[in-house]
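TODO from last week: model Bacterial transferase hexapeptide repeat protein.
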Amino acid sequence: MILTHQQKRPNIHPTAYIAPTAAICGDVIIGAHCRIMHGAALIAESGQIVIGDYGIVFENAVLRSNAAHSLTIGKYCLIGPQAHLVGCTVEDEVFIATGAAVFHGAVLEKASEVRIHAVVHLKTRLSAGATVPIGWIAVGDPAQLFPPDQHDAIWEIQQPLNFPLTVYGLDRSEATMEKITRKLAESLSSHADDEVILPEA
C-alpha cells in the first residue's frame, strides 16, 4: 500500500519491487532495483526515508523517520525480517539481521554488520566493517559492545544520552508514560489525512 502523508508521496524507482502487503507512507525515496517485501512498513513522519539502489527490506521490517531524525540507507544494504530502524544513517553494504534494532541518531559505517536480535543504541557510531554479535548491544560514539547481561555498564553510557528527550522531546525527569503517550497520540493523529495512492492503470 502506497500512501501520502502531509501531502508528501513516495518516490519509487520503476525498477524497484514493492510487495502488495508492504506499506510505504510519506516522503520515502526508494532507489533502483530495491525489493521491499511483504509486511514491511516504511513510515516517514515529517523526516525523510531514503533507500539506496539494490536495498533489500525483508518481511515485517519497520523503518521510521520523524522531523528530528531522517533515515538514510545506502546502496547494497540488507535489512532482515522483523528488524526495526528509526532515524539512523546506514552507509553502503551494511547487513542488519533478523530482529535487530537501530535507534535514533545512530550511524552504521560501510560494511558493518548487526547480527540477529542485536541492538545499536541511540547516537551510537559503529565503525566500518565492525560487527555487533548476536544479541549484543552497541552503545556510544565510538561504539562499545556489551553482552545483554551487562545492563549496568550499558546504562552508564546510555543514561546521559537522555533517550526520552531525544525520542519524545521530554526530559527524563518529566517523561511520564501519560505525557509520552499523549504527545505520541497527538503526533500520530496526522495519519488521519493520509491518502492511498492507487496504481496507475
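Done. The first strand starts at residue 2 and ends at 4.
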